[in-house]
């Protein structure tokens, strides 16, 4: 299973929207910078064209009109009237009508200047050559100032847009998250009661999801109820014949003596184990928090008795049982501990072909370790040890004991802690 930490829908959307906002902001800043630069260039070109139109109007109205010829603006009627120092920087053949061309040249004062040339041609062929020259330093300062103002205003506008967008997104999050929270609370109640009435959510997809959840939980609840009822009925039905068997065996034990009594005593122990198991199953099926009654156990005697009862499982194999038991008495749910211990020891005996089974027990814990030998195609895990360990796991979970099963280097180990 992946170790990736899960996030809520709101957290995931928040990070995604933050990345989108950063990308959107960068795109806006880059776009505004380009638009600002193009706007300044467009304004300068059109300003020169407006000057050309004004000069054309004056020249047409007055044939003696003196075209301007100063430091910043010069106008000429013919190409050969343009000073050679400026004309050589432009190619007459490459010029297009009513298009502005710009060069960075050295002016008469020895300073760098932006020189713009426009060949203005009217519809009837009236032609003017317009030259404008401005200091590069002053022009750059002006452009920087204009760009700064425009970008500042654009950033303020962008900030305002961001505030409005984030307020809108926050509102949408709240509106979107409310149905999810309703579904979550409804599902939590559904865990405890599979018969919870359906609820209408404001989103149709959530209604479909809720219906599927309820159908699944209802099916599982019905199955669990049938299982619990079966366990209750089976346990109750077993108690009467078990009591009868127990009474008959007690009578036989009282009446018989000699070798026959040994067989009866084994039957009595088996009947007593069945009684404990029946009580444990009934206790598990009730889903009650009430524990089974405690009794005082002397650990060495308890372990020795269990080992003797299960020794027949290893009598034809080279298997020995080593007991490391603390000589103490403990107050514990004795019937449950006996069921758990018997299941764990039985599994250890059944799956050990040769070697040593080690039992270590003290006042707070129990550990059983045994070697295992399985065929290559077999898988040795918790499930392969059958119903016994599952029953042990359920008992431990309900009574609050810590149970652990592990397998390492061809050895199986079970640990139980009731401290």
Number of domains: 3
Specify the structural class: alpha+beta
Q: In order across it, which strands form the biggest sheet?
A: 6-8-9-11-10
Q: What is the CATH fold-level name of the largest domain? A: Beta-Lactamase
Number of helices: 8
Rg over CA atoms: 48 Å
- Average per-residue pLDDT, rounded, comes to 80
CATH class of the largest domain: Alpha Beta
How much beta, percentage-wise? 15-25%
Number of DSSP E strands: 11
| Tertiary shape | rod-shaped
Q: What is the rounded distance between the termini?
A: 32 Å
> How would you sum up the major sheet?
5 strands, mixed
CATH architecture of the largest domain: 2-Layer Sandwich
What is the string of SSEs from the N terminus onward? HEHEEEHHHEHEEHEEHEE
Looking at this protein, list some descriptive labels.
419 residues, alpha+beta, Beta-Lactamase, Helix Hairpins, Heat Shock Protein 90, 5-stranded mixed beta sheet, 8 helices, 18% strand
Write a structural description:
The protein has 419 residues and is of the alpha+beta class. The protein folds into 3 domains: 11-158, Beta-Lactamase (2-Layer Sandwich), CATH 3.30.450; 204-283, Helix Hairpins, CATH 1.10.287; 291-417, Histidine kinase-like ATPase, C-terminal domain (Heat Shock Protein 90, 2-Layer Sandwich). It is 56% helix and 18% strand. It contains 8 helices and 11 strands. It has helices at residues 9-61, 84-87, 136-192, 204-255, 259-285, 299-310, 334-350, 386-399; strands at 73-76, 100-106, 112-121, 127-135, 295-298, 318-325, 329-332, 354-361, 365-371, 402-408, 411-417. The strands form 3 sheets. The chain has a 5-stranded mixed beta sheet, covered by helices on one side. Strands 1-4-3-2 form a 4-stranded antiparallel beta sheet. The protein has a two-stranded antiparallel sheet with strand order 5-7. Strand 2 and strand 3 (112-121) form a beta hairpin. Helix 3 runs parallel beside helix 4, helix 4 (204-255) runs antiparallel to helix 5 and helix 7 packs antiparallel against helix 8. The model is unreliable at 375-385 (pLDDT under 50).
């Amino acid at each position: 299973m992946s170790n990736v930490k899960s996030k809520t829908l709101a957290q995931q959307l928040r990070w995604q929207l933050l990345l989108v906002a950063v990308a959107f902001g960068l795109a806006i800043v880059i776009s505004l910078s380009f638009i600002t630069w193009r706007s300044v260039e467009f304004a300068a070109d059109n300003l020169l064209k407006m000057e050309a139109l004004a000069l054309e109007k004056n020249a047409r109205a007055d044939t003696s009109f003196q075209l301007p010829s100063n430091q910043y603006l010069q106008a000429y009627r013919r190409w050969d009237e343009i000073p050679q120092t400026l004309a050589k920087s432009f190619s007459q053949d490459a010029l297009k009508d009513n298009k502005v061309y710009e060069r960075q040249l050295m002016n008469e004062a020895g300073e760098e200047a932006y020189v713009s040339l426009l060949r203005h041609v009217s519809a009837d062929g009236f032609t003017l050559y317009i030259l404008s020259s401005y200091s590069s330093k002053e022009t750059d300062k002006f452009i920087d100032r204009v760009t700064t103002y425009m970008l500042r205003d654009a950033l303020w506008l962008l900030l305002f847009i961001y505030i409005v967008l984030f307020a809108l997104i926050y509102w949408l999050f709240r509106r979107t998250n409310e149905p999810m929270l309703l579904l979550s609370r409804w599902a939590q109640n559904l865990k405890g009661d599979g018969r919870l009435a359906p609820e209408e959510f404001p989103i149709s997809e959530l209604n479909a999801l809720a219906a599927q959840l309820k159908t699944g939980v209802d099916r599982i609840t019905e199955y669990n109820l049938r299982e619990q009822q079966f366990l209750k009925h089976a346990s109750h039905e077993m108690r009467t014949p078990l009591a009868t068997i127990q009474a008959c065996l007690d009578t036989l034990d009282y009446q018989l003596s000699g070798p026959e009594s040994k067989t009866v005593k084994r039957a009595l122990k088996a009947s007593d184990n069945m009684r404990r198991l029946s009580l444990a199953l009934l206790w598990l099926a009730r889903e009650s928090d009430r524990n089974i009654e405690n009794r005082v156990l002397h650990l060495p005697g308890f372990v020795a008795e269990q080992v003797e009862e299960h020794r027949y499982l290893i009598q034809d194999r080279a298997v020995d049982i080593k007991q490391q038991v603390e000589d103490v008495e403990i107050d514990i749910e004795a019937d449950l501990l006996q069921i758990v211990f018997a299941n764990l020891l039985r599994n250890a005996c059944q799956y050990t072909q040769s070697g040593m089974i080690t039992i270590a027990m003290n006042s707070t814990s129990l550990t059983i370790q045994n070697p295992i030998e399985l065929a290559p195609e077999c898988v040795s895990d918790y499930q392969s040890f059958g119903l016994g360990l599952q029953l042990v796991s359920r008992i431990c979970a309900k009574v609050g004991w810590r149970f652990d099963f592990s397998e390492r280097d061809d050895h199986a180990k079970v640990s139980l802690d009731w401290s």
